[in-house]
Design brief:
heterodimer, A: 466 residues, alpha+beta, 11-stranded mixed beta sheet, two-stranded antiparallel sheet, B: 60 residues, mainly alpha
């Protein structure tokens, strides 16, 4: 612990641009902080010091030559280890992938971060093949929550959440199929964005469930999240699901705030699966935004069931060769779920996809009358490592499959979601989902900006930090 | 699906997929499959018109 206030990505970029800092000095202090702090957290699985120093040297040289620097010049960041990083094997959390040939090139989003001047300092821990919400990885170790190292960081992008929460990096990238950005954002108390399905290119990332896979950023400040998201946008023929859309930047949108937007809290399914801390976080946000309406998402439970079955089936099918021959080397916490998924009847899978299409139409109709929906991101704050069950009311559910139950009905139909960290003194962080109609990430940012401006949402600084 | 149907489904699908499960594994897979069958039941019962397609847009 240094006792200094961590610098945001935008502050670092401004200092590098002005010459107050060099990219090299920022990179060296980041690498030192990772070496000092991450042994307590296990958020990183590889530190790319050589690449980082080389990228920093390019930035410093460009500045010395009088060039205008790009928006994230000199800003350190790290990526979930399912992103291709040239020269590294893409682990996707799996021991089976450790012997794969190194990636020949960077994932599209890593290349975009480099174009924006950012410095890649490493890759981050995750649940094997992204099938989990806890980052209790048997091969690479559990990632610990910086706010309480005896608790999980959430998953599957647990390293991405923990590294930002601990201010090892101001920005990270992760993936979200059923909640894997939103769950660790909530449990680690950081800002996270799962954009609209098809918004950001997934080329060069290890897939899990291609019908549902999204990529997105984590940040310790909302302004950093917006800047990072803006540099990641853009069509990419290398990802068949990536939409041909123009850049729709959110930096300016934030300035408008939530004024004039029609906002409702999600009731029904979304209020029935909450522990008291999660309910309190939603109340805090709704009070801050003066939300009085409550809406129900039609058939949310069916949407979740569709996502669950599509996930199990596509995930099981993707890994069938390994399940047949090498499953003794797969994660014991998820391989039985992969096996069961591989056995889902085709009629179930096809029906789940058709229910998904039907459910999407029902929810789209809702947006004629509302702009933003508010719901908790997780049913509870971070749970102790090793917990097996999630309990609320009289209900008991298997924790590792259930932490995403409030996230799944939203990602199932690809809606954009921004997770706002709601911190309460002395309590663990809890995230709230700010949900909009497809392609309206700008509205999510407007509402988040109002919450940040009035202090209702902010990423708390844990005792363990860089 | 009742428990016998689920067990029969898991046995048939594991054979069709070329996966040999030992007894303990089989029991765990049946547990997970049962959880999925419970989730799937209302979804499978939902009546949809034939025009509800799973892939409304395909862009080559």
């Amino acid at each position: 612990v240094t006792g200094t206030v961590p610098r945001s990505a935008l502050e670092i970029a401004a200092d590098v641009r002005s010459g107050a800092l060099t990219a090299r000095s920022v990179t060296e202090s980041t690498l030192a902080a990772i070496a000092r702090v991450d042994a307590k957290l296990n958020s990183f699985t590889a530190v790319t010091a050589g690449r980082a120093l080389a990228e920093a040297a390019v930035i410093d040289k460009r500045r010395a030559a009088g060039e205008a620097l790009p928006p994230l010049a000199g800003v350190p960041y790290a990526v979930k280890n399912l992103f291709d990083v040239a020269g590294l094997s893409t682990l996707a959390g799996a021991k089976l992938n450790a012997g794969d040939p190194p990636a020949a090139s960077d994932a599209t989003l890593v290349a975009r971060m480099q174009e924006a001047g950012a410095i890649l300092v490493g890759t981050l821990n995750m649940d094997e093949y992204a099938y989990g919400f806890t980052t209790e990885n048997t091969h690479y170790g559990v990632t610990r929550n910086p706010h309480d190292p005896d608790r999980i960081a959430g998953g599957s992008s647990g390293g991405s959440g923990a590294a930002v929460a601990a201010r090892l990096v101001p920005l990270s990238l992760g993936s979200d199929t059923n909640g894997s950005i939103r769950v660790p954002s909530s449990l680690c108390g950081v800002w996270g964005l799962k954009p609209t399905y098809g918004r950001l290119s997934r080329r060069g990332s290890y897939p899990f469930v291609t019908s549902l896979d999204h990529l997105g950023p984590f940040a310790a400040t909302l302004a950093d999240l917006a800047e990072c998201y803006d540099v990641l946008q853009g069509a990419d023929p290398g990802d068949p699901a990536c939409a041909q859309r123009p850049l729709e930047q959110v930096k300016r949108a934030r300035e408008q705030g939530a004024s004039g937007l029609r906002i409702a809290r999600l009731g029904g399914y979304f209020s029935e699966h909450l522990t008291p801390p999660a309910a309190a976080a939603v109340d805090r946000v709704c009070t801050a935004l003066a939300v009085t309406r409550t809406l129900e998402l039609p058939a949310a439970e069916l949407g979740r069931a569709a996502a669950f079955l599509i996930t199990a089936s596509e995930g099981g099918a993707l890994h069938l060769p390994s399940l047949r021959a090498r499953r003794d080397q797969m994660e014991p916490l998820s391989r039985d779920r992969f096996l069961a998924g591989a056995m889902v009847p085709a009629a179930w899978y096809v029906k789940a996809q058709r229910v998904r299409a039907w459910y999407r139409e029902q929810v789209q109709a809702l947006f004629a009358d509302v702009d933003i929906l508010i719901a908790a991101a997780t049913p509870c704050p971070a749970t102790p490592i090793g917990s097996e069950w999630l309990e609320f009311g009289g209900e008991r559910m298997p924790l590792r499959a259930s932490l995403g139950l409030l996230a799944q009905p939203i990602s199932c139909i690809g809606l954009p979601v921004l997770v706002a960290p709601v911190a309460r003194a002395g309590a663990l962080p809890m995230g709230v989902q700010i949900i909009a109609a497809p392609w309206r990430e700008d509205l999510c940012f407007r509402v988040a900006a109002t919450l940040a401006a009035i202090g209702a949402a902010a990423a708390p600084l844990p005792a363990i930090h860089a | 699906m009742n428990e016998h149907e689920i067990a029969a489904c898991v046995d048939a699908a594991s054979a069709a997929n070329g996966i040999a499960l030992d007894a303990e594994e089989r029991a765990r897979v049946i547990l997970h499959f049962t959880r999925m069958a419970i989730l799937a039941a209302p979804l499978l019962e939902l009546a949809l018109t034939p025009d509800v397609e799973m892939a409304p847009v395909f862009r080559p």
